[in-house]
Automatic annotation (TrEMBL):
Superkingdom as given in the UniProt entry: Bacteria
Full protein name: Nickel transport ATP-binding protein NikD (TC 3.A.1.5.3)
InterPro entries recorded: AAA+_ATPase (IPR003593), ABC_Ni/Peptide_Import (IPR050388), ABC_transporter-like_ATP-bd (IPR003439), P-loop_NTPase (IPR027417)
Subcellular location: Cell membrane
GO molecular function: ATP binding; ATP hydrolysis activity
Topology of this chain in the membrane: Peripheral membrane protein
UniProt family annotation: Belongs to the ABC transporter superfamily.
Cellular-component GO terms for this entry: plasma membrane
Pfam families named in the record: ABC_tran
Cell inner membrane among keywords: yes
PROSITE patterns: ABC_TRANSPORTER_2 (PS50893)
Residues annotated as domain ABC transporter: 7-256
Length: 277
């Protein structure tokens, strides 16, 4: 079982105006690997991920196949009942979103929210779940984790909240983590920290990662395979290294050229960080 997820001919249509926004996209996610999905705003990156996970609005219709293989066998995510899909999303596939603030309830403390996730999806008692939350925060090197557990979301920075989400994923040990623009809302220091946490996440959990971003520098740093999207279509797909070295499609060349300088400065700063660490 080499592929964890095989997506075939994924189409998403807005039923309100019959407009197709994703036009038959196919790709695979291999075990222990990172698939980067890149493309400009509106190219369909988020919609592709949401469609696979059953998180589109009710007026969006999804077709195609998204075969997810786990120890329990292979099932098509697009054919599952809402309840089954919800439990797969809680346990086997974790999502990390761009806006971490919106992922947390503003009225509950971080510790109890993290614990709630572990109680629901791992069947732990409250005290076991709180212990797990603390361990998870320590694993992402969160400063002062005991205090962080007692904070409300608005008392933490975007970067810290993002790292709380990574910590939850780390503790859940899912098969797949889908991260949708997880660094976009962050400043460059927090961006680097979060990217490093993603590396850690992969190393420690062995989870496969779908990393959606318009930042080619970050994607190049993390990805093994690359899916380039434009206007809801797949324009290029394959090994990230060879695409970055020798892009075939004009659009990929354009993306790489227009981001080359930024990508290089990002790579340099990651190397500097690695040297000084
Ligand atoms: N809730 C929605 N209902 C209908 N159409 C939508 C909805 N959300 C997005 N779309 C459309 O789907 C297409 C793809 O959008 P999507 O958000 O997936 O792009 P993206 O590549 O993720 O962009 P960004 O980087 O800005 O998030 C766009 O044409 C967009 O207008």
């Amino acid at each position: 079982m080499d592929n964890l997820l095989v997506v075939r001919n994924l189409k998403v249509t807005d039923l309100r105006n019959q407009e197709e926004v994703i036009h038959g996209v196919s790709f695979e996610l291999k075990k222990n690997s990172c698939l980067g999905i890149v493309g400009e705003s509106g190219s369909g990156k988020s919609m592709t991920a949401k469609a696979i996970l059953g998180l589109t609005n009710p007026w969006m219709h999804t077709e195609g196949a998204a075969k997810f293989s786990s120890e329990q066998g292979t099932l098509d995510l697009l054919q599952q009942e809402a309840n089954t899909l919800r439990s797969i999303r809680g346990q086997r596939i974790c999502m990390i979103l761009q806006d971490a603030m919106s992922a947390f309830d503003p009225l509950a403390k971080i510790g109890s929210q993290m614990a709630e996730t572990f109680i629901e999806n791992k069947g732990l008692s409250r005290s076991e779940a709180m212990t797990m939350a603390l361990i998870a925060l320590k694993m992402v090197n969160m400063p002062d984790p005991e205090q962080v557990l007692k904070k409300y979301p608005h008392q933490l920075s975007g970067g810290m909240l993002q790292r709380c989400m990574v910590a939850i994923a780390l503790a859940m040990k899912p098969d797949i983590i889908v991260a949708d623009e997880p660094t976009t809302a962050l400043d460059s220091i927090n961006q680097r920290l979060v990217v490093e946490e993603f590396k850690l996440l992969r190393q420690q959990t062995g989870a496969a990662l779908i990393f959606i971003s318009h930042d080619l520098g970050v994607v190049q740093y993390l990805s093994d395979q690359l899916l380039v999207m434009r206007c809801g279509e797949r324009v290029e797909y394959g090994e990230a290294k060879s695409i970055f070295q020798n892009p075939q499609h004009e659009y990929t060349k354009y993306l790489i050229d227009s981001r080359r300088e930024l990508a290089q400065s990002f790579q340099k700063s990651m190397k500097r960080r690695a040297v000084s660490a």
